[in-house]
Write a structure and sequence with these properties.
disordered N terminus, 2 domains, globular, six-stranded mixed beta sheet, single chain, Immunoglobulin-like, five-stranded antiparallel beta sheet
């Protein structure tokens, strides 16, 4: 089956005084089982028409949760050769949406494992350029006052992961060394999330506080969409909490769990007593 991680991805791109806004759903796709087709939705919630070129790129995760170009010796873990997507370039009017379809075809000799590529959306912007010398400038669209040619050029790009799990792929996520540190305004929870196995782990983090002598738990922090991929094995996480102080002696409980679509299954949790330093 295909599992969708459905929170909308909100992206802003700025070119001069014009901002472009795009909503993408889902923000991550995981193929597993017998499902072979996925549909993505792009919504242009800006006030201007925007165009995007759509293509696969190969990236791997670093320990900070960012992405770098995939090394050549890891290209065997790519999913892009198995996936066809359509359309490859779109223009979306303000307030309108465009659907992108992904089609998976696994080769017959594919080995058991997890494969991943990133679907890149490259924003294209209309850029005003002076016409060549001696050439009469043409109007843009239906506006006769715009006397410049237009060309499309790359402006902004962003991507979402597309994962293919073939066969018996398993993974275990672990929270390691959670600590609290003081930020500029709020407290910061720092920790590592470790991943063991042949697959990736994906989940949300919630942080609770239980004051000394109190039976009540208080939610003091939450963040969504923390993923750890097999090539890195661990990820450094630093998340700002909702509070600027935690009483000395309070117990802090950190829960890493799947999202609603996955049934809020607890991947791991860890507790520690805060000493107030």
């Amino acid at each position: 089956m295909v599992r969708y991680l459905w929170p909308l991805l909100l992206l802003w791109g700025v070119s001069g005084s014009v901002s472009a806004q795009l909503l993408i759903s889902p923000t991550k796709v995981i193929f597993s089982g017998n499902e072979r087709e996925v549909e993505l939705t792009l919504l242009n919630s800006s006030s201007v028409r925007n165009s995007y070129r759509i293509e696969f790129v190969e990236r791997e995760q670093d320990e900070g949760g960012g992405y770098v170009n995939r090394r050549q010796d890891k290209m065997g873990l790519s999913a892009s050769s198995m996936i066809r997507h359509s359309p490859r370039q779109v223009t979306i009017e303000p307030g309108q949406y465009q659907r992108i379809r992904l089609y998976l075809r696994e080769p017959g000799d594919l080995q058991v494992g997890e494969y991943r590529s990133h679907l890149l959306y490259k924003k294209l912007a209309e850029t005003k350029v002076e016409p060549p010398k001696g050439k009469v400038a043409q109007p843009l669209g239906n506006d006769p006052n715009k006397k410049l040619d237009a060309q499309l050029e790359a402006e902004i790009s962003f991507s979402i992961p597309v994962v293919v799990r073939h066969g018996n792929v398993s993974s275990i996520g672990k929270i390691s060394n959670p600590t609290l540190k003081r930020g500029k305004e709020k407290l910061i929870l720092e920790m590592q999330i470790l991943s063991e196995g042949t697959g990736s782990v994906h989940g949300d983090v919630e942080v609770f506080m239980q004051e000394s002598g109190s039976p009540n738990l208080r939610l003091i922090g939450k963040t969504k969409g923390i993923s750890v991929y097999p090539e890195v094995g661990k990820r450094q996480v630093a998340m700002e909490l909702m509070v600027d102080t935690v009483p000395a002696g309070a117990v802090v409980n950190v829960v890493y769990q799947t999202d609603r679509k996955e049934g809020f299954r607890v991947i791991d949790q860890a507790s520690f007593r805060y000493n107030g330093q």
